[in-house]
Amino acid sequence: MALTSGIGPGPQLPASVTEQAGGRSPLESVVLVVALALLTVGAIVVVKRWRMRRIAWLVPVLLAVLTCAAGVNSYVGYVRSFDDFGRLLMLASGGNGDAEPAAPAEPDPVPGGVRVADVSLPDPGLGVPTGRTRVLLPPGYDDPAHAGERYPVVYLVHGYPSGGPDDWLGPGGAVQTLQALADARATRPMIVVAVDATAGTGTDWECLNVPGGPQLESYLTTTVPREIDARFRTLPDRGDRAIGGMSGGAFCALNLGLRNQNTYSVVLASEPYDDPGTTLLDGHPDLLRANTPREYLPTLQVTQPLAVMLHAGVVAHSDVDLANRLGDQLAARGATVAVRAEPGEWHTWRTARIGLPYLLAFAAENFTAGPRNPS
User: What is the pTM for the complete model shown?
Assistant: First the structure.
């Protein structure tokens, strides 16, 4: 059972939802780690027994490397599919693992299931030339019976380094989580939008309006919600709009949500921090202070109803301490706050994936439209 602060435990969810979020794909399996370890030992025995040439030692060495990599991935949970593995190889080779495709295709709707739409939302005037965005449409969105229905929206920001919107679909498990919530009738239907906070460059801009660089805060608080509202059947109001993220994306969500309360009413921060920790604002001390929640939270004015859920892994003690401190500060400013800590988890994508259904359910409970279950 998860540990919680005294502020609020957050939502309770059925086992069918939580178990799918915490489940491991074959590439994350401990069985894979054990199998590779046994193959490594077997290869060493064979090479030694048959006194094979030195080049033959490459086989057990390679197997040992794969064993270590599988062990790390079993804990971190970043590579869940061969698509994830391909993006990782591209990043390792210096490419952009989330580069915008030449002709993005929209998958065929799955009857009764989540549909993922690829959209490009460039804003060159704000220094964002591409703006690849993944939009997760809830089950029933394409059903003619629901043609007049509008949906609240959760915007999710990826982490770093070299993150991108596909991270929420791969290691973040957003599609499976949205489907599981719908299948269990655990929340009202919602649209989930995974954004690109790198301005198409792979650079960690911390979602800031960078002097002489991309204006990511303006992009994510004006361009993106405006375009999503225009293209999809959203509830285009701050009371039905949330922003969330993990790690660096959690800082983005926290900072942008607090600074733009007219745009977002719910903030969802998994493994957050409260300092941009960047040199991008060097020479601009006022801008740095205005974008550092640690500095401005004690005097923050909460001008409209604001709900914040903070999430961290217990093993990452500093994350938990920070989440509790932020929770206390936000509650003191009048926000509705929940804090959740995952036992046995660290600062990883696996932690974010486990927390995502709780974050989405918290958003649903605090949207103006209310926590209606799907019909």
Answer: 0.86
